[in-house]
């Protein structure tokens, strides 16, 4: 094959084919029409009748010329000539097949709109768009409306990662709380919904979102809070001397604890006045003639320890002799403060009833356990309040789940969460909070589970 006989296998042009070096010992050419390189072979353009027939059958069957050429390794130009010749043989004078419509790019290939695009679309400067996004400077309402309309039309969303890096803020608060596993059970008894609602309400007023951590327990590490996802942390009811809180305090990470006031220096805390609440309950029982008053509940968290402290203060202020045997707590009772196992409580109540000088009043750590105790005592033939007065703490749905209701202490979980979130915002802003710890007042709610002791006539 001479240079004069060479034609491009891609566009079938025979002139302007120039040598383009060698490849594996064979002369390579370049077509100056389509700019493609190739190695000519004597058999490259020799197609059998079967290939031609197959190509035409595929085309007539609805396969596009591009796919036919690709499938049979043909030049699109050669296939076009075959199709034209086939139509002429059939007496059809028609132009060559129309090219395929251009393929639309897939969604992932679309370019993300930037503030440059928004500025151009809205007819303002890039700095004006930046001021709009960061709520800085003065701006006419008409300009704001035009920018908002352009962002909506262009489907523009600010790059949160870039903003977080520039502002050193993610505008996200982390939340660690108990009770998430059974939100669908005993609705109204679980304080978690009220806590989350209070946190969300306060966070929303500061344009913050929430990130709720579900991986709590032994696998939790303070390091997961320091990876840049959140600006601060709210932790509800941590255990006493929680080691992860100590680490957060050491690095100065903004953190607030709810339902506890025993925290390392630098960690904010908000809790109800547990000491005064239990003192009020004891004084209420003492005013009704009770002299043997027992406490049954956990002691693993600071709020329960404060309730025990308030119990003792109430006993002393009422002039009742102190009896440490009437404070009933244990590792098993403490472990099951979330009402998962009642066996330890059953054993404790049976022991109380068998005491030589049995109590006439029993104070439980919360309303849920108080309601359970009333039902359990009924199975033992013990009447409430005639035989044994019962009190709770929290004033939630459990306090109304038994006939006549339960005398208890009301605490506002929603307000506690709001105050804790506001305190956290002060820490995030680097401000010195008015008080690192806040105590929310509580109030006595008297119902039928307590009654005056009947003295023998």
Helix content: 25-40%
Overall pLDDT level: 83
- Unreliable residue runs: 100-109
Compute the number of strand runs: 15
Put simply, the count of helices is: 15
Placed side by side, the strands forming the largest sheet appear as 5-4-6-7-8-14
- What string gives the helices and strands in order? EEEHHHHHHHEHEEHEEHEHEHHEHEEHEE
Tell me about the biggest sheet? 6 strands, parallel
- How much of the sequence is in beta strands? 5-15%
What class, by secondary structure content? alpha/beta
Radius of gyration: 40 Å
| Coarse shape | elongated
Measured distance between first and last alpha carbons: 134 Å
| Oligomer kind | single chain
Describe the model:
With about 450 residues, the chain is α/β, with parallel strands linked by helices. Helix content is about 35%, strand content about 15%. It is built from 15 helices and 15 strands. It has helices at about 50-60, 65-70, 75-90, 115-120, 125-135, 140-155, 160-165, 190-205, 245-250, 275-285, 300-315, 330-335, 345-355, 365-380, 415-430, and strands at about 15-25, 25-30, 35-40, 170-175, 210, 230-235, 255-260, 270, 295, 325-330, 360-365, 390, 410, 435-440, 445. The strands form 4 sheets. The protein has a 6-stranded parallel beta sheet, sandwiched between helices. The chain has a 4-stranded parallel beta sheet with strand order 10-9-11-12, with helices on both faces. A hairpin with a 5-residue loop joins strand 2 (about 25-30) and strand 3 (about 35-40). Helix 4 crosses helix 5 and helix 8 (about 190-205) packs parallel to helix 15 (about 415-430). Residues about 100-110 have low confidence and may be disordered.
């Amino acid at each position: 094959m001479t240079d004069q006989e060479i034609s491009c296998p891609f566009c079938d042009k025979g002139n302007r084919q120039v040598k383009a070096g060698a490849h594996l010992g064979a002369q390579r050419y370049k077509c100056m029409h389509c700019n493609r390189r190739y190695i000519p072979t004597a058999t490259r353009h020799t197609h059998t009748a079967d290939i031609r027939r197959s190509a035409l059958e595929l085309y007539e069957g609805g396969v596009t010329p591009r796919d036919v050429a690709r499938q049979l390794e043909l030049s699109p130009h050669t296939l076009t000539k075959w199709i034209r010749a086939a139509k002429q043989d059939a007496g059809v004078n028609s132009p060559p097949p129309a090219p395929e419509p251009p393929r639309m790019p897939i969604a992932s290939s679309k370019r993300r709109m930037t503030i440059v695009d928004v500025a151009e679309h809205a007819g303002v400067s890039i700095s004006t768009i930046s001021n709009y996004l960061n709520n800085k400077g003065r701006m006419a309402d008409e300009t704001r409306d035009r920018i908002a309309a352009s962002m909506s039309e262009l489907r523009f969303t600010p790059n949160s990662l870039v903003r977080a890096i520039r502002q050193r803020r993610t505008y996200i608060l982390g939340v660690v709380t108990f009770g998430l596993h059974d939100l669908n059970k005993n609705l109204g008894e679980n304080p978690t919904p009220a806590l989350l609602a209070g946190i969300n309400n306060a966070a929303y007023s500061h344009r913050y979102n929430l990130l709720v951590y579900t991986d709590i327990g032994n696998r939790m590490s303070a390091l997961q809070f320091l990876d840049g996802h959140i600006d601060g942390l709210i932790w509800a009811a941590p255990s006493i001397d929680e080691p992860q809180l100590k680490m957060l305090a050491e690095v100065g990470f903004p953190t607030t604890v709810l339902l506890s006031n025993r925290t390392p220096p630098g960690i904010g805390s908000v809790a109800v006045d547990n000491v005064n609440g239990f003192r009020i309950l004891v004084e209420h029982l003492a005013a009704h003639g009770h002299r043997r008053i027992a406490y049954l509940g956990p002691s693993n968290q600071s709020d329960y320890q404060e309730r025990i402290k308030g119990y003792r203060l109430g006993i002393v202020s009422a002039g009742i002799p102190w009896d440490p045997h009437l404070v009933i707590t244990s590792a098993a009772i403490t472990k099951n403060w979330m009402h998962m196992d009642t066996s330890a409580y059953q054993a404790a109540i049976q022991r109380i009833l068998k005491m030589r000088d049995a109590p006439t009043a029993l104070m439980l750590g919360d309303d849920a356990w108080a309601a359970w105790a009333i039902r359990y005592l009924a199975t033992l033939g013990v009447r409430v309040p005639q035989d044994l007065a019962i009190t709770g703490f929290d004033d939630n749905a459990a306090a109304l789940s038994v006939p006549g209701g339960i005398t208890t202490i009301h605490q506002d979980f929603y307000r506690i969460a709001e105050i804790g979130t506001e305190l956290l915002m002060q820490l995030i802003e680097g401000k010195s909070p008015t008080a690192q710890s806040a105590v929310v007042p509580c109030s006595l709610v008297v119902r039928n589970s307590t009654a005056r002791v009947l003295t023998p006539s």
